[in-house]
Write a structure and sequence with these properties.
This protein is an alpha/beta fold and about 700 residues long. It is about 50% helix and about 20% strand. The longest helix has about 35 residues. The chain is elongated, with a radius of gyration of 47 Å. Bound molecules: ligand C2E and magnesium ion (2 copies).
Length: about 700
């Protein structure tokens, strides 16, 4: 016992020397180290300079009394927690109360029971040390909670909530607010998407004692969204009865973000930010499943930059990296091209991945026709082939592509990738800078198509296109009121090729843009010449396909064109189809308004074959509707076609636009149309499309007839 207590130092404060001496002796005898003070002032002085484990303090003393001494002691930094036993008069409740108010830990009544004094002191020391231990563990618990961003909480059956400071911090609320929050208010912070799940789990702990662990997002009281991990267990009384729920809630936002960053790093190529091989396969699998359900065709393209090693050698690694980044960006833009967008009906996004040093894999979803993959491949090769500026130098690359088709060649992403790689070797072997299909037969189809594309490209640049004109006639007077310009291809070996044979290819390959430019130039040049020659102004229509109509700058291009040739914009009619307008109504409406604002006329071609409803037609600002030939064919028989034409005429009157019937071949059709109120006709009955000189002779002859 002596060893245990010999470090413990007590201070006995009493102005009564006898009592003080008795106490000191008794306690020293019990093994304590004891110092004495004969006044409050002296005690405070001693206390200032040394540590004591406990004070025995008399209440009634000369100078400052025991209460005041205790109060001052408590104000001293080391005096805050030291146990103080006050010596008070027997049964003097008033002074006992005052003692506690002054900060005493306990009291001992006089006369002192000397036998018990040592026990009272020991008891005082013990409870002080356990209070200290508890405070310490509470503090370290709070510290641990703070470090772990983990708050603890509990609900009693009564619904009252207790929570740690850290929990309040996690929820962005003051502790007091959190303490008086109801379990419902606590639950309300859980994001809508998960609230029911969390609520059910908490209810089950309370009802069945079923513990849970959950991760879910919360919206803090300050609006910030965080992710938390929560674990809860039943709270039981000593008899094992369920009395509530207790749990911990940990803010794991940083960890989750770090994990998602790591996941991104694991799944993406660091240089280009594109998915890597593993992720590509993950993305491809569900896309193929869906394609298989929709019976859609897909293609996997494996692209490899030709002779990349020499680029790296010439530019160094930094230069090589830059080149790869540029190529990656071009591939991403290239797969979003217009022909694919129109071919892809399901609106799937394409996937571009970097799967090796200078190799990329692309997945094209729902390509419509297998040979569309070939078109895209060629466009990608062209995109890669554009000069790249690196380190002040301009480099030009070529690449090769291997293509495997779904479902033709394989059904799963792994096989498709492998087959595309095999096809790539064929492309390399065949001389690089080209694409090759895994399937031999597809190669034949693709090369025939490529040849046709090259042929058409040459035709546009080499002056093989011809402009034909077909008159639009007022059937009542026989006067020509306008003309439609129709393209022909004067092929060196095939002769005159009709547009139906090459317009679709031109649209798929983007060649429709230079083709339309050529037609517009021809038409406006002709209008300019007529103007100069003093001929009556005759409006001419040009067919404008989707890519041209939607291309940026069309309005400016046309305005510039008519200005250069001194032609009024009203003389140029742009024919667009219903399906073009319907593919993106809002954009089409804006486009029509812009062009009409510039003075150009707009005509809705092949009307009746699309799916535009009345409500849309009302929004399209147009000048003319052209009734498709298929409704004209049987119009003389009345019936459905007759009724349809009649209603189109009524609609046109309502919208104040003119109606033209296309493909009028017989007098009977012409008569029927006129009786239905449609008087403007275009068709073989009046004239076939013809070259310009012939059209001019036709005009002369017609005007002579009309004059006569
Ligand atoms: P479209 O714009 O509806 O042109 C009317 C088509 O009907 C023309 O065919 C014309 O020759 C034909 N046609 C006119 N009257 C009759 C008739 O009485 N009977 C019959 N059976 N056919 C008649 P074409 O010239 O072969 O052109 C076909 C389509 O090709 C055009 O249909 C148009 O969609 C497109 N097209 C023609 N030229 C161009 C062009 O320069 N650019 C674009 N984007 N498309 C063009
Ligand atoms: Mg037309
Ligand atoms: Mg038409």
């Amino acid at each position: 016992m002596h060893e245990n207590t010999n470090k413990i130092r007590l201070l006995v404060v009493d102005d009564d020397m006898l009592l003080r001496g008795m106490a000191t002796r008794t306690l020293r005898h019990a093994g304590f180290e004891v110092l004495e003070a004969d006044s409050g002032e002296r005690a405070l002085e001693l206390f200032e300079n040394a540590n004591f484990d406990l004070l025995l303090l008399d209440v009634l003393m000369a100078g400052i009394d025991g209460y005041e001494t205790c109060r001052r002691l408590r104000a001293m930094p080391r005096g805050l927690r030291v146990p103080v036993l006050m010596l008070t008069g027997l049964n003097d409740t008033a002074s006992i109360e005052r003692a506690y108010e002054a900060g005493a830990t306990d009291f001992i009544t006089k006369p002192i029971q000397w036998v018990l004094l040592t026990h009272r002191v020991r008891y005082g020391l013990r409870s002080a040390s356990s209070a200290e231990a508890m405070r310490h563990s509470r503090e370290s618990l709070a510290r641990a909670q703070r470090m772990a961003h983990m708050g603890s909480w509990s609900f009693g059956v009564g619904g009252a909530m207790a929570c740690s400071e850290e929990l309040a911090r996690i929820f962005g609320a003051p502790v007091e607010a959190m303490q008086c929050a109801s379990p419902e208010a606590f639950l309300a912070r859980v994001r809508d998407s998960d609230r029911e799940r969390v609520g059910t789990a908490r209810a089950r702990v309370a009802s069945d004692g079923q513990p849970y662990q959950l991760v879910f997002p919360i919206e803090r009281f300050d609006g910030m969204v965080r992710t938390v991990f929560e674990q809860a267990e039943p709270l039981r009384d000593p008899l094992g009865q369920l009395v509530g729920v207790e749990g911990i809630t940990q803010d794991i936002t940083e960890r989750v973000e770090a994990e998602s960053q790591i996941r991104h790093l694991v799944l993406h190529d660091a240089l280009t930010g594109l998915p890597n091989r593993d992720f590509f396969l993950d993305l491809a699998a569900p896309a193929l499943e869906q394609a298989s359900r929709n019976q859609a065709q897909c293609a996997v393209l494996h692209l490899d930059i030709d002779r990349f090693k020499s680029i790296n050698d010439a530019l160094g690694h930094a230069g090589g990296d830059e080149v790869l980044r540029v190529v990656a960006a071009r591939l991403q833009t290239g797969t979003r091209g217009s022909d694919l967008a129109s071919a892809s009906r399901s609106g799937h996004t394409e996937v571009v991945a970097r799967i090796g040093g200078n190799a990329f894999t692309l997945m094209l979803v729902d390509i419509g026709r297998p040979d569309h993959a070939s078109t895209t491949a060629e466009r990608l090769l062209q995109a890669v082939n554009q000069p790249i500026q690196v380190q002040g130098r301009s480099v030009q690359l070529t690449a090769s592509i291997g293509i495997a088709l779904f479902p033709r060649d394989a059904h799963d992403a792994g096989d498709l990738t492998r087959f595309a790689e095999q096809a790539l070797y064929e492309a390399k072997k065949a001389g690089r800078a080209r694409h090759s299909f895994f399937d031999e037969e597809m190669n034949a189809v693709a090369s025939a198509r490529l040849a046709r594309e090259a042929d058409l490209r040459r035709a546009i640049a080499g002056g093989e296109l011809r402009m034909y004109l077909q008159p639009k006639v007022d059937a009542r007077s026989g006067a020509t009121t306008g003309a439609e310009a129709l393209v022909r291809w004067q092929h060196p070996s095939k002769g005159l090729v009709p547009p139906g044979n090459f317009i679709p290819l031109a649209e798929e390959t983007g060649l429709i843009l230079p083709l339309t430019d050529w037609m517009l130039e021809q038409v406006v040049t002709l209008l300019g010449r007529w103007q100069r020659e003093g001929l009556a102004p005759l409006p001419v229509s040009v067919n404008v396909a989707a890519p041209c109509f939607m291309a940026d700058g069309l309005a400016d291009q046309l305005s510039g064109l008519v200005r250069r040739h001194g032609v009024r914009p009203e003389q140029l009619i742009l024919e667009v189809t219903e399906s073009l307008l319907m593919s993106d109504v809002d954009r089409a409406v804006a486009r029509l308004d812009l062009l009409r604002g510039r003075g150009f006329k707009l005509s809705l071609d092949d009307f009746g074959t699309g799916y535009s409803s009345l409500s849309y037609i009302k929004r399209f600002s147009i000048d003319e509707l052209k009734i498709d030939r298929c409704f004209v064919m049987d119009v003389q028989r009345g019936g459905k076609d007759g009724a349809l034409v009649a209603s189109i005429v009524t609609l046109a009157r309502m919208l104040n636009v003119q109606v033209v019937a296309e493909g009028v071949e017989t007098e009977a059709q012409s008569l029927a149309l006129r009786s239905l109120g449609c008087t403007l006709h275009q068709g073989f009955l009046y004239a076939r499309p013809m070259p310009v000189e012939q059209f001019e002779r036709f005009l002369e002859a017609a005007s002579a007839t009309v004059q006569r």
